[in-house]
Amino acid sequence: MKKIMLSLLAAMCMFGLTACGSTDSSSSSTADTSTPSQAGLQEAQEQQSATVTEAEQSDEEKTVPEQTEEQSQNTDTEASTGADTIIVYFSATGTTKGVAERIANVTNADIFELIPAEPYSDADLDWNDSSSRTTIEMNDPDVRPAIANDTVDLDSYTTVYIGYPIWWGDAPRMMSTFVEAHDFDGKTVIPFCTSGGSGIGRSGSNLASQAGSGNWLEGGRLDAGISESEIQDWINDMN
Model's pTM, two decimal places? Predict the structure, then answer.
């Protein structure tokens, strides 16, 4: 009888140990499976949130583009200019450009370079060639070469210097294109030229006739190497 009771007791103990082991194994398995699933869900949510944030930032950058420092400075300069004098010039080889810049420095003036719609090549400027472009243009007083950038507004200026090289004793025909397109009424206009030796001649008075308005002074020829003090003397002599 004792043997039977001991056998039953041993069997019951074995059953209890097996059940406990099974429960622990099941709980452990459940925990192992659920942990990766929750981590994956959290990672997916974070990625989705990051994608939305990046898209919103991209839209803002497209809607309000950042202005560069250079653009900001250009805008300020254009908005704050209050000069009453402007130098408008055409320079084929850079000589008139240098003189125009020195006049602008002396007079604290604005400056504007006229650019031909069709630039002049060295062959075009060959005055020894009877078939060169400039020779043909200067032999025809009615030619009006186009200007690529005639966007200058003269309304706010009271004094306008107009500079150019002398070609065949006159101003380049492109200067006629310019003066005929603008109103100089109420303005003092001062022509100046550069050349290898020729004076200003009738080029200034010819432009005045073509403009049809403005108080045109005689102006004059200025040497390529003229100093700013000499320019000041020239200006003083006109007053």
Answer: 0.67
